[in-house]
Write a structure and sequence with these properties.
Layout lengths: L3 E5 L6 H10 L13 E10 L2 E10 L6 H8 L4 E7 L3 H5 L1 H11 L5 E7 L11 H11 L2 E4 L8 H16 L10 H9 L20
Parallel strand pairs: 1-3, 1-4, 4-5, 5-6
Antiparallel strand pairs: 2-3
Bound molecules: guanosine-5'-triphosphate.
Length: about 210
Amino acid sequence: MAPKVMLLGDSGVGKTCILMRFREGRFLAGNFISTVGVDFRTKVVSIDETKVKLQIWDTAGQERFRSVTHAYYRDAHALLLLYDVTNKTSFDNIRAWLGEIKEYAQDDVVIMLLGNKADCGSERAVRREEGERLAREYNVAFMETSAKSGQNVELAFMAVARELKYRQSGQRDTNKFSVQDYVREKQNGKSSQPFTQQQQCPQCNTN
Ligand code: GTP
Protein backbone atom coordinates (compact mmCIF):
# COMPACT_ATOMS: atom_id res chain seq x y z
CA MET A 1 0.00 0.00 0.00
CA ALA A 2 1.41 3.38 -1.01
CA PRO A 3 1.89 5.59 2.05
CA LYS A 4 -0.21 8.75 1.91
CA VAL A 5 1.36 12.04 2.84
CA MET A 6 -0.84 15.13 3.09
CA LEU A 7 0.23 18.75 2.86
CA LEU A 8 -1.71 21.07 5.16
CA GLY A 9 -1.60 24.71 6.19
CA ASP A 10 -3.06 28.12 5.38
CA SER A 11 -3.50 29.29 1.82
CA GLY A 12 -0.30 30.67 0.33
CA VAL A 13 2.20 29.04 2.71
CA GLY A 14 3.73 27.11 -0.20
CA LYS A 15 2.24 23.60 -0.16
CA THR A 16 2.01 23.28 -3.94
CA CYS A 17 5.50 24.73 -4.36
CA ILE A 18 7.00 22.31 -1.82
CA LEU A 19 5.43 19.41 -3.69
CA MET A 20 6.66 20.77 -7.02
CA ARG A 21 10.17 21.23 -5.64
CA PHE A 22 10.25 17.70 -4.25
CA ARG A 23 8.73 16.03 -7.28
CA GLU A 24 10.23 18.03 -10.09
CA GLY A 25 13.15 19.82 -8.49
CA ARG A 26 12.00 23.26 -9.56
CA PHE A 27 10.34 26.33 -8.13
CA LEU A 28 7.22 27.86 -9.56
CA ALA A 29 7.79 31.57 -9.23
CA GLY A 30 5.27 34.17 -10.31
CA ASN A 31 1.52 34.01 -10.19
CA PHE A 32 0.03 32.32 -7.19
CA ILE A 33 -2.74 29.93 -8.23
CA SER A 34 -4.62 28.63 -5.21
CA THR A 35 -5.32 24.91 -5.09
CA VAL A 36 -8.98 24.02 -5.46
CA GLY A 37 -10.06 21.13 -3.24
CA VAL A 38 -7.46 18.37 -3.28
CA ASP A 39 -4.87 17.26 -5.78
CA PHE A 40 -2.50 14.34 -5.63
CA ARG A 41 0.82 13.25 -7.11
CA THR A 42 3.06 10.26 -6.60
CA LYS A 43 6.80 9.96 -6.27
CA VAL A 44 8.92 6.84 -5.87
CA VAL A 45 11.76 7.21 -3.37
CA SER A 46 14.45 4.77 -2.31
CA ILE A 47 14.82 3.94 1.35
CA ASP A 48 17.64 1.56 2.20
CA GLU A 49 17.51 0.29 -1.39
CA THR A 50 13.78 -0.42 -1.20
CA LYS A 51 11.47 1.56 -3.45
CA VAL A 52 8.59 3.30 -1.70
CA LYS A 53 5.85 4.97 -3.72
CA LEU A 54 4.60 8.01 -1.88
CA GLN A 55 1.15 9.38 -2.58
CA ILE A 56 1.30 13.07 -1.85
CA TRP A 57 -1.94 14.95 -1.37
CA ASP A 58 -1.86 18.69 -1.85
CA THR A 59 -4.83 20.35 -0.18
CA ALA A 60 -6.40 23.77 -0.56
CA GLY A 61 -5.56 26.02 2.37
CA GLN A 62 -8.58 28.23 1.83
CA GLU A 63 -11.22 27.97 4.53
CA ARG A 64 -14.02 27.32 2.02
CA PHE A 65 -12.51 23.96 1.09
CA ARG A 66 -12.03 22.77 4.67
CA SER A 67 -14.97 20.34 4.70
CA VAL A 68 -13.66 18.73 1.50
CA THR A 69 -10.14 18.29 2.85
CA HIS A 70 -11.29 16.91 6.22
CA ALA A 71 -12.60 13.87 4.37
CA TYR A 72 -9.04 12.97 3.33
CA TYR A 73 -7.41 13.20 6.78
CA ARG A 74 -8.53 9.76 7.89
CA ASP A 75 -6.51 7.93 5.23
CA ALA A 76 -3.32 9.94 5.70
CA HIS A 77 -0.27 8.24 7.16
CA ALA A 78 1.77 11.42 7.45
CA LEU A 79 1.01 15.12 7.50
CA LEU A 80 3.36 17.92 6.56
CA LEU A 81 1.91 20.98 8.26
CA LEU A 82 3.24 24.22 6.82
CA TYR A 83 3.32 27.81 7.89
CA ASP A 84 5.03 30.72 6.15
CA VAL A 85 7.87 32.30 8.18
CA THR A 86 6.95 35.70 6.67
CA ASN A 87 3.31 35.40 7.71
CA LYS A 88 2.67 35.44 11.47
CA THR A 89 -1.02 34.60 11.05
CA SER A 90 -0.17 31.37 9.27
CA PHE A 91 2.01 30.46 12.28
CA ASP A 92 -0.66 31.46 14.81
CA ASN A 93 -3.13 29.25 12.95
CA ILE A 94 -0.97 26.15 13.44
CA ARG A 95 -2.64 25.43 16.80
CA ALA A 96 -6.02 25.36 15.06
CA TRP A 97 -4.62 23.05 12.36
CA LEU A 98 -3.29 20.71 15.04
CA GLY A 99 -6.76 20.75 16.59
CA GLU A 100 -8.31 19.72 13.28
CA ILE A 101 -5.71 17.00 12.86
CA LYS A 102 -6.57 15.65 16.31
CA GLU A 103 -10.22 15.61 15.35
CA TYR A 104 -10.02 14.13 11.87
CA ALA A 105 -6.76 12.21 11.43
CA GLN A 106 -5.63 8.86 12.80
CA ASP A 107 -4.10 8.99 16.28
CA ASP A 108 -0.77 7.59 15.10
CA VAL A 109 -0.39 9.86 12.06
CA VAL A 110 3.17 11.14 11.59
CA ILE A 111 3.23 14.94 11.82
CA MET A 112 5.98 17.28 10.77
CA LEU A 113 5.80 21.05 11.17
CA LEU A 114 7.51 23.03 8.43
CA GLY A 115 8.32 26.74 8.52
CA ASN A 116 8.45 27.46 4.79
CA LYS A 117 9.90 30.43 2.83
CA ALA A 118 13.06 30.38 4.96
CA ASP A 119 14.80 32.10 2.05
CA CYS A 120 12.91 35.33 2.79
CA GLY A 121 15.35 36.67 5.37
CA SER A 122 14.37 40.33 5.53
CA GLU A 123 10.63 39.65 5.54
CA ARG A 124 10.78 37.06 8.31
CA ALA A 125 8.02 37.45 10.92
CA VAL A 126 8.43 34.17 12.81
CA ARG A 127 11.74 33.24 14.41
CA ARG A 128 13.04 29.75 13.98
CA GLU A 129 13.02 29.29 17.79
CA GLU A 130 9.28 29.99 17.88
CA GLY A 131 8.69 27.15 15.44
CA GLU A 132 10.94 24.86 17.43
CA ARG A 133 9.14 25.73 20.66
CA LEU A 134 5.70 25.05 19.19
CA ALA A 135 6.86 21.73 17.73
CA ARG A 136 8.31 20.71 21.09
CA GLU A 137 5.05 21.58 22.80
CA TYR A 138 3.12 19.26 20.50
CA ASN A 139 5.88 16.66 20.26
CA VAL A 140 6.17 16.85 16.49
CA ALA A 141 9.24 17.10 14.27
CA PHE A 142 10.17 20.52 12.91
CA MET A 143 12.34 22.13 10.31
CA GLU A 144 12.46 25.25 8.21
CA THR A 145 12.21 24.78 4.46
CA SER A 146 12.31 26.75 1.25
CA ALA A 147 10.58 25.60 -1.88
CA LYS A 148 12.52 28.33 -3.63
CA SER A 149 16.05 27.27 -2.67
CA GLY A 150 15.22 23.63 -1.98
CA GLN A 151 16.41 23.88 1.63
CA ASN A 152 15.35 20.78 3.58
CA VAL A 153 12.54 19.87 1.17
CA GLU A 154 13.87 16.44 0.31
CA LEU A 155 14.87 15.84 3.92
CA ALA A 156 11.29 16.47 5.10
CA PHE A 157 9.74 14.00 2.67
CA MET A 158 12.46 11.41 3.11
CA ALA A 159 12.21 11.53 6.90
CA VAL A 160 8.49 10.78 6.85
CA ALA A 161 8.91 8.17 4.08
CA ARG A 162 11.51 6.38 6.17
CA GLU A 163 9.32 6.43 9.25
CA LEU A 164 6.35 5.09 7.29
CA LYS A 165 8.41 2.34 5.72
CA TYR A 166 9.67 1.21 9.10
CA ARG A 167 6.17 1.25 10.51
CA GLN A 168 4.77 -0.77 7.61
CA SER A 169 7.46 -3.37 7.90
CA GLY A 170 7.01 -3.56 11.68
CA GLN A 171 10.65 -2.67 12.24
CA ARG A 172 9.88 0.31 14.38
CA ASP A 173 7.92 0.77 17.59
CA THR A 174 5.06 2.96 16.38
CA ASN A 175 4.71 4.58 19.80
CA LYS A 176 8.09 6.16 19.43
CA PHE A 177 8.16 9.22 17.23
CA SER A 178 11.48 8.68 15.58
CA VAL A 179 11.22 11.28 12.82
CA GLN A 180 12.48 13.89 15.27
CA ASP A 181 15.62 11.92 16.08
CA TYR A 182 16.19 11.28 12.41
CA VAL A 183 15.83 14.93 11.45
CA ARG A 184 18.08 16.02 14.32
CA GLU A 185 20.70 13.52 13.26
CA LYS A 186 20.56 14.67 9.64
CA GLN A 187 20.67 18.33 10.52
CA ASN A 188 23.69 17.77 12.75
CA GLY A 189 25.32 16.07 9.78
CA LYS A 190 25.99 12.89 11.71
CA SER A 191 24.86 10.54 9.00
CA SER A 192 26.41 9.53 5.73
CA GLN A 193 23.08 9.42 3.88
CA PRO A 194 23.50 11.30 0.61
CA PHE A 195 20.23 13.12 0.19
CA THR A 196 20.40 16.05 2.59
CA GLN A 197 19.59 19.34 0.91
CA GLN A 198 20.43 21.57 3.79
CA GLN A 199 21.72 24.87 2.61
CA GLN A 200 22.52 27.90 4.64
CA CYS A 201 19.99 30.62 3.99
CA PRO A 202 22.22 33.54 2.98
CA GLN A 203 19.84 36.14 4.36
CA CYS A 204 18.65 34.72 7.66
CA ASN A 205 21.68 32.54 8.37
CA THR A 206 19.71 29.51 9.38
CA ASN A 207 19.73 26.06 7.94
P1 GTP B 1 -3.18 27.16 -1.48
O1 GTP B 1 -3.22 26.29 -2.69
O2 GTP B 1 -4.07 28.37 -1.62
O3 GTP B 1 -3.50 26.43 -0.22
O4 GTP B 1 -1.67 27.75 -1.36
P2 GTP B 1 -0.30 26.95 -1.22
O5 GTP B 1 0.00 26.73 0.21
O6 GTP B 1 -0.31 25.74 -2.10
O7 GTP B 1 0.77 28.01 -1.77
P3 GTP B 1 1.63 27.97 -3.13
O8 GTP B 1 2.54 26.80 -3.14
O9 GTP B 1 0.73 28.12 -4.28
O10 GTP B 1 2.55 29.28 -2.93
C1 GTP B 1 2.00 30.56 -2.68
C2 GTP B 1 2.99 31.65 -3.06
O11 GTP B 1 4.17 31.57 -2.24
C3 GTP B 1 3.47 31.57 -4.50
O12 GTP B 1 3.52 32.87 -5.02
C4 GTP B 1 4.87 30.99 -4.40
O13 GTP B 1 5.71 31.43 -5.45
C5 GTP B 1 5.34 31.48 -3.04
N1 GTP B 1 6.26 30.54 -2.37
C6 GTP B 1 6.02 29.24 -2.07
N2 GTP B 1 7.05 28.69 -1.44
C7 GTP B 1 8.01 29.66 -1.34
C8 GTP B 1 9.33 29.70 -0.77
O14 GTP B 1 9.87 28.73 -0.22
N3 GTP B 1 9.98 30.90 -0.85
C9 GTP B 1 9.43 32.00 -1.42
N4 GTP B 1 10.14 33.10 -1.43
N5 GTP B 1 8.19 31.99 -1.96
C10 GTP B 1 7.49 30.84 -1.92
